[in-house]
Amino acid sequence: MNRTRTQFIRSHLADLSRLPPKEALGRDWIRGRRVVDIGCGGGLASESLARLGMHVLGVDAARESIEIARTHAQRDPALRDLAYVQSTAEQLGERGFDVVVSLEVIEHVADPMGFVKSLVDLARPGASIFISTMNRTPLAAIADILVPEYLLNVVPRGTHDYRKFVKPEELSQMLQAVGAETLDTRGLVLDPINNHT
Description:
Elements: H1 2-16, H2 21-24, E1 34-38, H3 44-51, E2 55-60, H4 63-74, E3 82-86, E4 97-103, H5 112-122, E5 123-132, H6 138-151, H7 168-177
Parallel strand pairs: 1-2, 1-4, 2-3, 4-5
Helix pairs in contact: 1-3
């Protein structure tokens, strides 16, 4: 899913930049953009975005996640424009990012509306914000809770609470309430048999 999400982010940034298709294939236009990845976990998305040439700051509240992300990133000398810090979106002092990313985080926070506001506050005016979450549907209850937590036991039980999953229209309403606009909504389903989305 990481590759699909990274391609989605890159594609949308290219579209918003109104680049000719040939130029969008290159990397010059994306180099140097400041990105913050809130709830970066082990750094998978942060690393992928840094490999595109962006300056990425991975942020996570869990010290263990930051340590794992730093250790993994140190193995790749090409990731020199990648840094990690233990913090929350609300506590992060830095502002004015060109791109704000938060993937599978909002469904774990106590105050989703406050969290969305903190993401918008991190962005410079006109910046792009990418939020990924589980949609509150019966399929998500099966695919994101029942199977991984109870049948396969690959995710600790209780990691996800179906009631905290956010529907796209709810997320759009939250963004609108804090002065942001939803430009696109896409669904993504992992095919575990063929290992693609």
